[in-house]
Design goal:
The protein has 135 residues and is an alpha+beta fold. The protein is built from 4 helices and 3 strands, in the order E-H-E-H-E-H-H. Strands 1-2-3 form a 3-stranded antiparallel sheet, with helices on one face. The N and C termini lie far apart (81 Å).
Amino acid sequence: MKYPPPFHEFNFETTRSSGAGGQHVNKTESAVILRWNPKTSSIFSELDQHRIIQFFSKSLTREGELLIRSSESRSQKQNKETCVKKWIALITKALQPRIKRIATRPTRSSRLKRVNEKKRHSEVKKMRSKILRND
């Protein structure tokens, strides 16, 4: 991985987990929410920050924070580790270079196949219709 997690920039919140679990879920705050602001990050260049902000444009809060929640484990420590792993995966995906698609034309054979399939489908539909007689 190119960038190590900036633990000094992470804010961790704990909350009660939801779902099944009985008394343990009702009494402990084992779920963890990781808060991170890409705008104020010191480990990324401006270009990387811009890419990250664009990638997460719909996921950021009004303050510009990225929230990652984990409540998979009963352990708060494991949930923190899961949040960091999710952060690493998301940042890696956000910083992957985008490959522009090169527009191509359909081949002659694919166009012929498409037209033949349309004709065949049309024939099937005609066969299903009622036959009108002029007696």
